[in-house]
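From: lab user (bench 3)
To: helpdesk
Subject: output format question, protein + iron/sulfur cluster

Hello, I'm new to running complex predictions and I'm not sure whether the block I got back is the full result or only part of it. Here's what I submitted:
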Amino acid sequence: MKTHANIPIFVPHMGCPNACVFCNQRTISGHNVPDFTKVRAEIENALATVDAGRTAQIAYFGGSFTAIDRKDMIYLLSVAKKFTDDGRVESIRISTRPDCIDEEIIEILRSYGVKTVELGIQSISEKVLLLSGRGHGADCCKRAAELITGAGMEFVGQMMTGLPGSTKEDEIRTAIAIADMGAVAARIYPTVVFKGTRLAEMAEKGEYIPMSREEAVDRTEAAFEVFAERGIKVIRIGLQSGEALVSGEEIACGDYSEAIGEMCISRYFEKKISALCKDISGGDVTVYCNPRRVSCAVGYKGGNKEKIKEKFGLRSIRISPCDGLSEFEIRINTNQRS
Ligand code: SF4
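Helpdesk reply: Thanks, we reran it on our side. This is the complete output you should expect:
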């Protein structure tokens, strides 16, 4: 099977008419406003590093691609299309906000051969959208997703946990809605409070309380579970760390961990294994999982094994790879049942 390489080109904030309370786009992408004349060379350089036999996709990420100046958008699409036309790149991907999608935009994207559109849905709760300053309602998200899928393009849904006014139930509902909208994949971002944002001011005034680490894991895992159970690939949990994030110098308050994705998937496996162990008391247990998911089953910093062992009074627990199992499938074998 051919593997896939992404060529990410960041198009930060520019053109976005909005001011979401959490947004500090420059920090997120770690890039300044790009010089578009360099994009072609940037793609050429990236292509030179893609191994033979891998397909490549150009991905315009980082802001609201369809809200940038129309000339710039068309220019960037035409640059990308040259690469798809000559067969060196397989497809084009963009990310944007729901209220920057309409029939005309869809037609432009389709004419340049865009294959995948990522939408920043963030939440489908009207209250959360309002408190977060998104500037549109839930209907707008559904309509944008419909236009994308109706045009035969892939829709990828991005959502956030821990937004102002949001609850775990809102986030589960959002994940279900994204799945129902026909998403082929999803990204989940626990809210990070950046310096200089309205959210940082809200936190300072006590109008917003950031999630603790435990809450972030619990709520983000709950959204992940919806996608995993519906067979929808989660391509990212948590912000990609730029330098500023790693050093923490751009974070105003609250928690941030690069390992949040690992922690969430590890929690998901802990829950699945626990459910299978619920009638077991003592003895030795072997847990079988897909070979690529052994570390998730073992848990973040090996924590799942110890927790499950203790919870069910097991003498031992072993995690074993099993080729026949699908990505999130778990089987157990035990020598003792209550
Ligand atoms: S829509 Fe995106 S780029 Fe625009 S303010 Fe909101 S988060 Fe930032």
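A quick orientation on your result: Residues 260-277 form the longest helix (18 residues). Let us know if anything else is unclear.
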